[in-house]
Specification:
The strands form five sheets. The protein has an eleven-stranded mixed beta sheet with strand order 9-4-1-2-3-10-18-17-19-13-14, with helices on both faces. The longest helix has about 50 residues. It has 13 helices and 19 strands. The protein is globular and about 110 Å long. Strand 11 and strand 12 form a beta hairpin. It folds into three domains: about 35 residues, no CATH class; about 240 residues, LCP protein (Aminopeptidase), CATH 3.40.630; about 90 residues, Alpha-Beta Plaits, CATH 3.30.70.
Length: about 475
């Protein structure tokens, strides 16, 4: 009996030691957890603090995650790059889309300037051949570097970066973000069996997938020879405008919060399908600020010039003086918040605007405003006209020409779910914003056009009340 009692007592002591040991272990574990939680709270507080210092919201989160502080954005220069869209014509790669693009994270302003594919870059107009068009340079002169050299020569811009996007990449990108809602400006019907290119799109707002995006961006004219109306920009000018507007809308819809989670897929597409000399380490610092970018801060235009026949071939001849003026306005004056020129070396003392295109100094009574019915023929259209006229604006309806050269109101309605206010001649931003206030709605598009007869074009959509 005594032995059993002693054994039980010994076991009890051992149990107590085990329990005490477990208690100590639990205390240590609790202390460790508390320390970890305190560290996490401290880190979270630090992250929240720097997120706030970096602008807050998604921008602040991304900037902080990349190790930015409040000075990082201030030290980022304007980012300029040459964007090229490649198509293949009988085994020859041609740059059908050439756009100079810039983005300034500090002013949150961006610019796109299209270079017409037929722009003359040769030395002799009398001996000009198809190889003297800028869209042929990619195949005959050092690929994208050759095109970049020619564009820098034309614009006197020191662009260092380029990105070449082939058709497959565009199709994949648009499909990756679930398509793009876009208002196709006209009916498009064109077939070219030699390129296996078949375009069949109806006018109006619709969901554009990758395959339709290729059709939209490559369209120049229909099978019957008709093209974009002169007011929009005929043939190549119209196509470039559509390209810029579609890219702008694609950018806007790609930057939606829900597409942030598709960033890996988008980057994979870029890595596989885009030829570029842009180093990701150079570009990644701009990403946090791009998510806050608003497309109404995007201004777009076309290299100034005129079509010209040279050696029995049609070319687009750049206007050197107007180009210097436009480059100064788009890429230098826009980046100064005070509106003063920060770079005079590219302007040779020219004015800040092209005299043929600017409505910058016009009052609202002087502006030529064209209003288009996108409501499908409802009474909202007339109601919008009355509201604008009551606010002191003079508006006109689009016209078409009959066989007797008499003008009549366009009676072919289109339907657009959104009202769009297009600033075509650099009208004052305050006036554009006043138009939006009067209408109570409207997406603002700064898409300049040297061929447009109107200063501002407004499409009244079904969203107008």
């Amino acid at each position: 009996m005594g032995k059993n009692k002693g054994k039980r007592a010994l076991e009890t002591k051992k149990d107590k030691k085990k329990k005490n040991k477990k208690k100590e272990e639990h205390k240590i574990l609790k202390l460790f957890i508390i320390i970890i939680l305190l560290i996490l709270i401290a880190l979270a507080s630090r992250f929240v603090y720097y997120t706030y210092k970096n602008g807050g919201g998604l921008q602040g989160v991304l900037a902080t995650a990349l190790g930015h502080d409040e000075n990082t954005k201030k030290n980022l220069p304007e980012f300029k790059a040459l964007l090229m869209g490649i198509s293949i014509d009988i085994d020859t790669k041609l740059t059908d889309t050439i756009i100079v693009a810039s983005y300034n994270p500090n002013t949150q302003k961006a610019t796109m300037m299209s270079i017409p594919r037929d722009t003359f870059v040769g030395y002799s107009e009398k001996k000009a051949t198809g190889s003297d068009k800028i869209n042929a340079i990619y195949s005959i002169k050092n690929g994208p570097e050759g095109v970049l050299e020619e564009v820098n020569e034309l614009t006197d811009l020191d662009i260092k970066y380029y990105a070449v996007v082939e058709t497959d990449a565009l199709v994949k990108l648009v499909d990756a973000i679930g398509g793009v809602t876009f208002n196709v400006p006209i009916d498009m019907k064109y077939d070219d069996p030699t390129q296996n290119l078949h375009i069949d799109l109806k006018a109006g707002e619709q969901e554009i997938d990758g395959a339709k995006a290729e059709q939209l961006l490559r369209f120049r004219h229909n099978n019957n020879g008709t093209s974009y109306p002169a007011e929009y920009g005929d043939n190549d000018i119209g196509r470039m405008r559509t390209q810029r507007e579609f890219m702008s809308e694609t950018m806007r819809q790609t930057l939606k919060v829900e597409n942030i989670f598709k960033l890996g897929q988008i980057l994979d597409i870029a890595k596989e399908s885009i030829e570029t000399n842009i180093n990701f380490n150079d570009a990644k610092d701009y990403l946090p600020y791009l998510v806050e970018f608003k497309t109404e801060n995007l201004v777009s235009d076309t290299l100034p010039g005129q079509p010209k026949m040279m050696n029995d071939l049609w070319f687009y001849k750049c206007d050197e003086k107007a180009t210097k003026e436009l480059v100064n306005k788009l890429f230098y004056k826009r980046d100064n918040a005070e509106g003063e020129d920060t770079n005079t070396t590219n302007t040779t003392n020219t004015t800040s605007k092209t005299n043929t295109t600017s409505a910058e100094n016009k009052t609202k009574e002087q502006l030529n405003i064209q209003i288009v019915d996108g409501t499908g023929g409802t009474d909202k259209y007339e109601k919008a006209i009355q509201a604008l006229e009551a606010a002191g604006f003079k508006v006109t309806k689009p016209t078409t020409t009959t066989s007797k050269s008499k003008k009549k109101t366009n009676t072919t309605p289109i339907t657009s779910s959104r009202t769009v206010i297009t600033n075509q001649k650099y009208a004052n931003d305050e006036i554009i914003n006043e138009i939006k206030t009067v209408l109570g709605t409207g997406d603002i598009s700064n898409n300049a056009s040297t061929t447009s007869q109107s200063d501002i074009s407004i499409t009244i959509g079904t969203d107008y009340q």
